[in-house]
């Protein structure tokens, strides 16, 4: 059976299906008659959770160190807490309802109590309660809770959607591709697939419902299709396509050390986008001229508390040091929208992409913002670090962000800590207002980087994550092109450089136009760098 979706990351994979269970289990209240057997069912799920957590903890200790593994210890403590599982048992006996509903009630009580306590540590425990409770609920539902980091070799992950923290767990040595029901080309799962260089198709609508665990599946990332249990002939055809693709990729490697110049002789930088410090390896291996976007929010995800200033400093330092003299544009925290932090509870919003996110949140939470800015400043002496602020809609926001940066510089001066006082600061142009107003902004910034993923969705009012409106999400729409051209011209008029770090920078159809407009820097997933280089040199 062939399923058609949206191509998210090129390449071919032939592997076995692993269905990732939904993060949330739907719970319906049911009356029960046999109290003892319901309690035993709950105990069975708890026991299973204990075994799973012991394994995960052992693995985390080995891979990530004892401090990172400690979170699983606290999850296990909840399983032993009489007020947690014990209370659920009491509800089963008293109200004669099913274990799922009883446990859900206990979880809700815990969350309500924790939310009412003004203490950061206690608030952070909300994520633990939800996580461990959800694990037991999944076990009750009989869902496979194998962690994504634990799957077998040659696995193709099939999921309704993958959250950024799910993708952060993917091990490229075992997961060779993924397929999701929802999402578009610029949803974060798709971007992550390109960063990891694994083929992926998103927006397949009902792929989860169409496969079973262990099915053989072909992922055709170029065409955006998945073939379930293909026949021999199809398998052969795809093995050949895969080999040919790999050969072509190999040939492109000749361009790694070649300087990128357009036909007219203009030197253009082709850089990589990264989400974690270790992603710089792929940028260098693909001949990247620098890092054009470091999405720092990934340092904040997949953990149970904020990264400290020192932890962040180490990560930024590692990246700039590895890149040597090459530029590294580090974007300040862009949380909100589809990127949530388990330990930073924010109210649900009607329109998260238009809501309290990125620079808006950072200017509102200077305590969080300053920790990051201090870490960035301290790391700036180790290489060519530039700071970029996301989601800027007005000059005032940029100036306020600079004000906070100045405050941090003052603090570091007092503490005798070094930083590069001349480091460049720029903004992402991803809100149409910033593009329209780029002439004014260009006077103040050191550079622009056009964030087309958001710029397109805001300009065309077409959600980047929604496959139903993906036909409207068109990088080549004349309105989008006008905004891009205008932004590049504004930067040049003030003698500033203009880059692009949205996915459009690596879009083969868009590259000739972007070269024509005079874009100075193209930043993209590492896996697209060499193809882009080849195209830019031809344009
Ligand atoms: C963008 O919006 O184009 C961008 C690069 O940022 P993100 O995809 O992280 O929103
Ligand atoms: Mg963006």
Topology:
Elements: E1 2-4, E2 6-9, E3 12-19, H1 35-64, H2 66-80, H3 82-95, H4 99-115, H5 120-140, E4 155-159, H6 164-169, E5 175-180, H7 188-196, E6 200-202, H8 207-210, E7 216-220, E8 225-228, H9 232-252, E9 269-274, H10 280-285, E10 291-295, H11 297-300, H12 309-323, E11 327-331, H13 358-364, H14 366-379, E12 384-389, H15 395-415, E13 425-429, H16 432-436, H17 438-441, E14 447-450, H18 452-460, H19 478-493, E15 497-500, H20 511-517, E16 521-525, H21 529-538
Parallel strand pairs: 3-4, 4-5, 5-6, 9-10, 9-16, 10-11, 11-12, 12-13, 13-14, 14-15, 15-16
Antiparallel strand pairs: 1-8, 2-6, 3-7, 7-8
Helix pairs in contact: 1-2, 1-3, 1-5, 2-5, 3-4, 4-5, 12-14, 14-15
Could you describe the 3D structure shown?
There is one protein chain. By secondary structure, the chain is an alpha/beta fold. The chain folds into three domains: 2-21 and 147-235, Phosphohistidine domain (Glucose Oxidase, domain 1); 35-141, Enzyme I, Chain A, domain 2; 268-475 and 497-507 and 519-527, Alpha-Beta Barrel (TIM Barrel), CATH 3.20.20.60. It has helices at residues 35-64, 66-80, 82-95, 99-115, 120-140, 164-169, 188-196, 207-210, 232-252, 280-285, 297-300, 309-323, 358-364, 366-379, 395-415, 432-436, 438-441, 452-460, 478-493, 511-517, 529-538, and strands spanning 2-4, 6-9, 12-19, 155-159, 175-180, 200-202, 216-220, 225-228, 269-274, 291-295, 327-331, 384-389, 425-429, 447-450, 497-500, 521-525. The strands form two sheets. The chain has an eight-stranded mixed sheet with strand order 1-8-7-3-4-5-6-2. Strands 9-10-11-12-13-14-15-16 form an eight-stranded parallel beta barrel, surrounded by five helices. β15 (497-500), α20 (511-517) and β16 (521-525) form a beta-alpha-beta unit. α1 runs antiparallel to α3, α2 (66-80) packs across α5 and α4 packs antiparallel against α5 (120-140). The longest helix has 30 residues, at 35-64. It is globular and about 80 Å long. The structure holds phosphoenolpyruvate and magnesium ion. The site of magnesium ion has 4 residues, from α18.
């Amino acid at each position: 059976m062939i399923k058609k979706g949206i191509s998210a990351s090129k390449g071919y994979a032939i592997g076995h299906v692993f269905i990732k269970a939904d993060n949330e289990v739907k719970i319906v209240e049911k009356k029960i008659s046999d109290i003892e057997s319901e309690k035993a069912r709950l105990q069975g799920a708890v026991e299973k959770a204990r075994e799973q957590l012991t394994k995960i903890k052992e693995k985390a200790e080995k891979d990530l160190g004892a401090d990172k593994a400690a979170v699983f210890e606290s999850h296990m403590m909840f399983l032993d807490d009489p007020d947690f599982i014990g209370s659920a048992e009491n509800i089963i006996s008293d109200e004669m309802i099913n274990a799922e509903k009883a446990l859900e009630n206990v979880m809700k009580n815990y969350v309500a109590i924790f939310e009412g306590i003004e203490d950061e540590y206690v608030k952070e425990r909300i994520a633990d309660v939800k996580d461990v409770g959800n694990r037991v609920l999944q076990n009750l539902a009989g869902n496979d809770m194998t962690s994504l980091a634990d799957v077998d070799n040659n696995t193709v992950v099939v999921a309704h959607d993958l959250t950024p923290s799910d993708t952060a767990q993917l091990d490229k040595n075992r997961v060779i591709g993924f397929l999701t029901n929802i999402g578009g080309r610029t949803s974060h799962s798709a971007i992550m697939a390109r960063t990891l260089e694994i083929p992926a198709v998103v927006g397949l609508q009902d792929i989860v419902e169409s496969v079973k665990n262990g099915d053989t599946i072909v992922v055709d990332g170029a065409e955006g299709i998945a073939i379930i249990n293909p026949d021999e002939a199809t398998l052969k055809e795809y093995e050949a396509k895969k080999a040919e693709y790999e050969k072509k990729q190999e040939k492109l490697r000749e361009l790694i050390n070649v300087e990128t110049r357009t036909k007219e002789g203009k030197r253009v930088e082709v850089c990589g986008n990264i989400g974690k410090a270790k992603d710089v390896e792929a940028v260098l291996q693909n001949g990247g001229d620098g890092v054009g976007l470091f999405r720092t929010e990934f340092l904040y995800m997949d953990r149970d508390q904020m990264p400290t200033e020192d932890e962040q400093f180490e990560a930024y330092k590692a990246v700039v040091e590895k890149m040597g003299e090459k530029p590294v544009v580090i974007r300040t925290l862009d949380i909100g929208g589809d990127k949530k932090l388990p330990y930073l509870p924010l109210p649900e919003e009607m329109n998260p992409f238009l809501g309290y996110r990125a620079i808006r949140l950072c200017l509102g939470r200077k305590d969080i913002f300053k920790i990051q800015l201090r870490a960035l400043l301290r790391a700036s002496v180790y290489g060519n670090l530039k700071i970029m602020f996301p989601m800027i809609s007005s000059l005032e926001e940029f100036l306020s962000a600079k004000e906070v940066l100045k405050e941090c510089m003052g603090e570091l001066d007092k503490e005798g800590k070094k930083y590069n006082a001349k480091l460049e600061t720029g903004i992402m142009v991803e809100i149409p207002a910033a593009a329209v107003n780029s002439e004014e902004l260009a006077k103040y910034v050191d550079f622009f980087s056009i964030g087309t993923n958001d710029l397109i969705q805001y300009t065309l009012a077409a959600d980047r994550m929604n496959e139903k409106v993906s036909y409207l999400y068109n990088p080549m729409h004349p309105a989008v092109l006008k905004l891009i051209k205008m932004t590049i011209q504004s930067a040049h008029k003030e003698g500033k450089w203009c880059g692009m770090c949205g996915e459009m920078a690596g879009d083969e159809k868009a590259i000739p136009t972007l070269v024509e407009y005079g874009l100075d820097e193209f930043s993209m997933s590492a896996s697209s760098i060499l193809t882009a280089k080849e195209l830019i040199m031809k344009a």
